[in-house]
Amino acid sequence: MKNFVTGGTGFLGAALVRQLLAQGEEVVCLARRGCDGRNLEGLDVKVAYGDLLDENSLVKAMDSCQRVYHAAAEYSLWVREPARIYEVNVQGTKNVLNCALRAGVERVVYTSTVGALGNPGDGTPGTEATPVSLSDMAGDYKKSKYLAERAAEEFAANGLSVVIVNPSTPVGPRDIKPTPTGKMILDFLKGKMFAYVDTGLNLIDVEDAARGHILAMERGVPGQKYILGNRDLRLGEIFGILSDITGIPAPRVKLPYWSVLPIAYVSTKLADYVTKKPPLAPLDAVKMAKKLMFFDPSKAVRELGLPQSPIEDALEKAVLWFRGNGYV
Question: Would you give per-residue pLDDT tens digits along the chain (328 residues)?
């Protein structure tokens, strides 16, 4: 089977590519020229250079592929030009799905995020069916992914066999950028984490999240959404696990949300208009922290067979990889 993968150079996409290769699949990866290709080094993949905003390059790269995994996205909680997030995440998704429809592929798995789902925020886990609207989205990244998910649903309604997966917070090796969660782990390893906001996340081993994509391709129902998550943890619990793994003391100062919000406003405005560099406390990240980002993955576990590997092991793999690759 020939698979077309976008985002294969990234954290989750690279784990997906490795698993496809391990089961004997042929893989074509879309990549932009000049991108960081370390995650594909040594792998038997065909790299097709192109861009999500260039449909001609997508058509050429997707030629003769039976399955499409669209995992690429502009994932950042602060960017100099917010319009770029919408171009890549919304229009780029529409382009991929339109080309897949024209090519008559067997199926598409679209990588959304739990951030595009409804979330009670009070510790009650959100599900695929929790009510949600655009006004619930905090920040441009979430808004863009919400709009892209609506586009995927529209393509599904118009006959494209597309399954939507909503990963929670993957952790593990090869987080080369790193992602915001990977940066949090790095800051902890570097002793920069002195205090934290009392919020919560749902974590999943990145390799389990990648397996969930393949299971969605094989067993998912077109037009349906599946949360690829595992364990709900408060931030203090995550730091406690990291402390057990590394011996580094966990931060003990727990800051209320209201005390951090003004700092986030100031640091983000400085980044926008003065430094032009990522802020110390991105406003969108702090706004997200107001809610406990807890989610229920039972539908994916029940219908897809989503693995639920221990989160302690996933965090340890992340720590070992960062330490072994010169990040710390």
Answer: 899 999 999 999 999 999 999 999 999 999 998 889 999 999 999 999 999 999 999 999 999 999 999 999 988 766 677 889 999 999 999 999 999 999 999 999 999 999 999 998 788 999 999 999 998 888 889 999 999 999 999 999 999 999 999 999 999 999 999 998 999 999 999 998 888 888 899 999 999 999 999 999 999 999 999 999 999 999 999 999 999 999 999 998 887 766 676 766 676 666 666 776 776 667 666 666 667 899 999 999 999 999 999 999 999 999 999 999 999 9
Place of tokens 């985002």: 7
Among left, alpha and beta (phi > 0; psi -120 to 50; other), residue 22 is alpha
Q: What angle do CA 82, 86, 88 make, to 5 degrees?
A: 110
Residue-range domains of the chain with CATH? 2-177+204-232+295-309 (3.40.50.720)
Residue 38's identity, in one-letter code, is R
